[in-house]
Design a protein that fits this description.
Elements: H1 2-5, H2 17-27, H3 31-40, H4 43-52, H5 60-69, H6 73-82, H7 90-97, H8 103-119, H9 125-138, H10 144-160, H11 165-176, H12 181-215
Helix pairs in contact: 2-4, 3-4, 4-6, 6-8, 7-8, 8-10, 9-10, 10-11, 10-12, 11-12
Length: 216
């Protein structure tokens, strides 16, 4: 896990994710079991805890406690994608965590934005705008685990909320043209991705117009 995926867990049995997903599905939803599994402390137990916990019973205190225990990017992303993004306190934790300088806490803030943008169909526009502002403000963080999460959070917003695409691509363009190398690494994938999509749409439109013209 460490050498191949960069997952440096303090305790791990080496169980594949596919098997963990099976175990989580078999266990069903169980808030008390999730607490026990998290307390056990291993990577696998905490992964299953995120899969079986009930987001309706997860409060801000639990989110904060679990966040303090994060020790690798994989458990951060699993908890944020599978559990925290379904809780009522998710957006308030985003605002708190994205400015925290601890590596995995900050990663959690942007992983949570990423998950919320992907999974919440009608995410409030003001939250998404603020998330873009957070991304721009923190883009100079030189740590790859933070920078990649920022990029993916922006990509998720632009992909799932097309009406905000220009609001994402514009600051990403500024970042990609700036002097800070970390900020450029955040912005450039966004610019490349959506510039190529725009070019493809234009190409298809022109092709369709030419076909229509030829037909007549």
């Amino acid at each position: 896990m460490s050498e191949q995926y960069g997952i440096h867990a303090e305790s791990s049995y080496g169980v594949p994710m596919r098997r963990l997903l099976q175990l989580g599905k078999a266990a069903g939803t169980d808030h008390e079991l999730a607490q026990q599994l998290w307390a056990e402390g291993s990577y696998e137990a905490r992964t299953i805890a995120a899969l079986v916990d009930d987001p309706h019973q997860v409060d801000a205190k639990q989110m904060q406690q679990w966040c303090q225990d994060f020790d690798n990017w994989a458990i951060v992303d699993t908890v944020c994608f599978r559990l925290f993004d379904k809780t009522s306190d998710a957006w308030s934790k985003v605002d708190e965590w994205v400015t925290d300088e601890r590596l995995f806490v900050k990663r959690a803030g942007f992983a949570l934005i990423w998950g919320l943008a992907l999974h919440v169909r009608n995410a409030p526009e003001h939250h998404l705008h603020r998330a873009v502002g957070h991304a721009r403000a923190q883009a100079a963080d030189p740590r790859p685990l933070v920078g990649k999460a920022i990029t993916m959070s922006l990509r998720a917003i632009a992909t799932k909320q097309p009406y905000l695409r220009d609001d994402v691509v514009s600051p990403a363009t500024d970042l990609s043209n700036g002097s800070d190398p970390a900020a450029r690494r955040v912005g450039r994938p966004i610019v490349r991705s959506f510039a190529s999509r725009s070019a493809l749409v234009e190409e298809r439109s022109e092709s369709g117009a030419m076909s229509l013209f030829s037909f007549h």
